[in-house]
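Supplementary Methods. Inverse-folding protocol.

Structures were first reduced to a discrete structure-token string of length 349. This string, shown here, constituted the complete conditioning input.
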């Protein structure tokens, strides 16, 4: 029997959310209608544009400090409520957006989320009260009660399962010969709600870090914020939607953000996660699949990453072995899009 067309509301507040839900949004729009409510954050709107997904922008940022974030919480609760009330969706979906959860409660609409960030305690506490279902990875550290459904998946598999086909032509655009070792470095802006009180490298240390990696191989930088002038020439100048193709062919990824570190690991590229925040996902990728190294100590993690990368380079089959480990992940873990879709149908029926 043909599925009933759905009206679905979703919030996009981060580039990773755009990647994660692009396939579900497109599937909804095949027969039904998706209302995408977006907040401008680190290029997520550019991603939505590149995917051909229409959206309503409700804010220009997610806030840079506690005061701004508090104001935006109220503003977005109101904005989401108004748009949802007008749209009359069957179901609301997305990540752990507390504003969307509040709007779901106020409008009486079911809210289904996927979340893998244990440290987002405020968001999870709100969603635990107002969301209908919270899907998490099996190894998620936090117990969220009877609304939680644990599954053997990573969020990155929403967009990096077997339907992802790497495009080697991207290397030519960057001037990289296929088979040549190179690294990607990801610097984050450290202004997310879970980054309060944490910081990365000052500019001079960033320059030293990049120069040390460059002694090993060519290096390209993906950065949420501005770079010192000395590093601008290292910036990865490709469309946002093409970054995973570059990650696939890279030798190493050094990332302050969990998303890109995890993406690299799932693509079979050895990654260094340079951040104090722990997560069940990154710990499993380190301990079970051995594709990621978690380095928490801000005083030593950058130097330690370079030392370990130098040692790993002695293995001439490192890249090929990584792709074999990617295959292990894909064999073990299902494509989560179908699981999430079935949950949506279940809730709407």
């Amino acid at each position: 029997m043909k599925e009933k067309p759905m009206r679905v509301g979703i919030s996009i507040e981060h580039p990773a959310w755009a990647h994660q839900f692009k396939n579900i949004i497109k599937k909804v729009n095949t027969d039904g209608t998706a209302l995408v409510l977006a907040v401008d954050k680190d290029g997520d709107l550019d991603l939505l544009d590149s995917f051909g997904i229409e959206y309503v922008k409700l804010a220009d940022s997610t806030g840079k400090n506690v005061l701004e974030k508090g104001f935006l919480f109220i503003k977005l609760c109101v904005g989401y409520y108004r748009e949802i009330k007008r749209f009359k969706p069957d179901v609301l979906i997305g990540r752990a957006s507390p504003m969307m959860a509040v709007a779901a409660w106020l409008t009486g609409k079911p809210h289904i989320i996927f979340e893998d960030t244990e440290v987002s305690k405020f968001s999870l506490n709100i969603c635990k009260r107002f969301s209908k279902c919270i899907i998490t990875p099996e190894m998620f550290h936090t117990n969220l009660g009877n609304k939680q459904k644990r599954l053997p998946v990573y969020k990155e598999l929403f967009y990096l399962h077997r339907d992802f086909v790497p495009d080697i032509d991207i290397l030519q655009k960057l001037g990289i010969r296929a088979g040549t070792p190179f690294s990607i470095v990801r610097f984050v802006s450290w202004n997310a709600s879970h980054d309060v009180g944490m910081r990365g490298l000052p500019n001079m240390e960033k320059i030293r870090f990049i120069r040390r990696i460059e002694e090993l191989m060519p290096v390209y930088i993906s950065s949420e914020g501005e770079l010192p002038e000395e590093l601008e020439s290292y910036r990865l100048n490709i469309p946002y939607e093409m970054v995973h193709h570059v990650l696939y062919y890279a030798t190493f990824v050094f990332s302050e953000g969990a998303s890109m570190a995890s993406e690299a690991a799932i693509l079979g590229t050895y990654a260094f996660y340079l951040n104090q925040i722990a997560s069940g996902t990154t710990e499993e990728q380190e301990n079970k699949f051995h594709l990621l190294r978690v380095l928490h100590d801000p005083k030593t993690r950058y130097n330690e990453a370079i030392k370990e990368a130098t040692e790993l380079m002695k293995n001439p089959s490192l890249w090929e072995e990584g792709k074999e480990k990617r295959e292990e992940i894909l064999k073990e873990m299902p494509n989560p899009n179908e699981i999430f879709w079935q949950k949506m149908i279940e809730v709407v029926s």
